[in-house]
């Protein structure tokens, strides 16, 4: 089966490209990025601020299973309806540097559309660190499982 | 034993990467591995211990000798480190698609 979401992250590069084709008309795909209550649903975050315009800003907040709140924010550099969003992304209170995101929205057919997300990181090392975040969690889960088995 | 040792930290060291290359094609004893390096034997032992702890190497007992060999499954997991990141986005986008299909039919 072909994967719907693709990540192209070349070795030693400080950027990556995420692409995804949707069974949605272009305007609906774009709406999912614009309407705060919809963003909240699919991103699983609370939207504290979302100014969809050039020189606008946004701030989201997530709550982890332990009840800790994590905020992330950015500045919207460019905003063209049904076409593109250029923005920065920063996780607050973490050592991770800000990243730059170029989002491009395209119509494929009247009922399908495509999103291309080009993310630029501070360095190649920094990119790989971010990529390993979900991986590291997976490893820890595997290790916790091993510990459980050993303890029983 | 430190179960939480970071596999990527283990791979960051050039000597450890050289050890993995060395045992990639054949199982070797600690002594045979150490003879390929100028570093002191205890240093090589420490590297072997780290690689074994993060499961990149496996040990097999054969008589009185312990042989080290590559854990291919683990190596593959490391090569695929982008996969969890891809899955995370895939799940988010699937959700987006479902939400917007419902949104469309409500309009």
TrEMBL record, chain A:
Gene3D superfamilies: 3.30.530.20. It holds the Pfam family AHSA1. Residues 24-150 form the Activator of Hsp90 ATPase homologue 1/2-like C-terminal domain. Belongs to the AHA1 family. This is ATPase.
UniProtKB/TrEMBL annotation, chain B:
PROSITE patterns: HTH_ARSR_2. Keywords: DNA-binding, Transcription, Transcription regulation. Residues 1-90 form the HTH arsR-type domain. Signal peptide: none annotated. It comes from the Bacteria. SUPFAM superfamilies: Winged helix' DNA-binding domain. CDD domains: HTH_ARSR. One of its GO terms (molecular function) is DNA-binding transcription factor activity. NCBIfam families: HTH_metalloreg. This is Transcriptional regulator. It comes from Solitalea longa.
């Amino acid at each position: 089966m072909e994967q719907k979401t693709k990540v192209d992250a070349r070795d030693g590069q400080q950027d990556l490209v995420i692409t995804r084709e949707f069974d949605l008309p272009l305007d609906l795909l774009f709406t999912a990025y614009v309407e705060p209550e919809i963003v909240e649903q699919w991103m699983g975050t609370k939207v504290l601020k979302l100014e969809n315009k050039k020189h606008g800003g946004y701030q989201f907040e997530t709550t982890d299973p332990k009840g800790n709140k994590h905020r992330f924010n950015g500045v919207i550099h460019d905003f063209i309806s049904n076409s593109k969003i250029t923005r920065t992304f920063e996780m607050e209170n973490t050592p991770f540097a800000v990243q730059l995101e170029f989002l491009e929205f395209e119509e494929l057919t009247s009922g399908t559309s495509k999103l291309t997300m080009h993310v630029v990181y501070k360095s190649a090392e920094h990119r790989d660190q971010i990529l390993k975040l979900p991986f590291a969690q997976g490893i820890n889960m595997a290790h916790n499982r091993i510990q459980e088995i050993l303890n029983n | 034993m430190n179960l939480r040792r970071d596999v990527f930290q283990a791979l960051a060291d050039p000597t450890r990467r050289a050890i993995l290359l060395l045992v990639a094609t054949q199982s070797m004893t600690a002594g045979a591995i150490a003879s390929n390096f100028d570093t002191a034997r205890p240093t090589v032992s420490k590297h072997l211990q780290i690689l074994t702890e993060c499961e990149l190497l496996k040990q097999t007992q054969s008589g009185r000798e312990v042989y080290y060999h590559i854990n291919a499954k683990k190596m593959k997991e490391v090569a695929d480190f982008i996969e969890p990141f891809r899955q995370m986005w895939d799940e988010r986008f699937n959700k987006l698609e479902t939400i917007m299909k419902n949104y469309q039919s409500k309009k």
